[in-house]
Amino acid sequence: xxxxxxxxxxxxxxxxxxxxxxxxxxxxxxxxxxxxxxxxxxxxxxxxxxxxxxxxxxxxxxxxxxxxxxxxxxxxxxxxxxxxxxxxxxxxxxxxxxxxxxxxxxxxxxxxxxxxxxxxxxxxxxxxxxxxxxxxxxxxxxxxxxxxxxxxxxxxxxxxxxxxxxxxxxxx
Length: 172
Known about the structure:
33% of the residues lie in helices and 17% in strands. It contains five helices and four strands. A four-stranded antiparallel β-sheet has the order 1-2-4-3, with helices on both faces.
């Protein structure tokens, strides 16, 4: 692993958290990093719902079978996209833009010493409908994912997932 890229290799999904709260200024830093992501035609269709309330996080987890860690996290950030603002109002551009914002959010959390885990929502219709209803999202707002965030109670080792067989030079 190239040591210059150590910050990327260090970013891992964290599923166990301490009970310490994450300061509001740090949440602002995370959102600023997320919104620094590239976006098709600079449309920036992302929207973020910050969920600190324990009861609300438990209700979110009701339909996220692999999201139990959200209950113990300090907060969840529901990353949504606005279809009316996406480039050409295309779902694919919305998903690409939101995914770039999510990755920036995950990297920023890691760099700030926080733990985070990306929990998929879209394209599971039952999850989308659940979050739309629970968070009272307008119809043109699509929940893409939930990111659990907190001070880590575990430290997964840095790693690379590089595979030579996944690399093709010039042609397949």
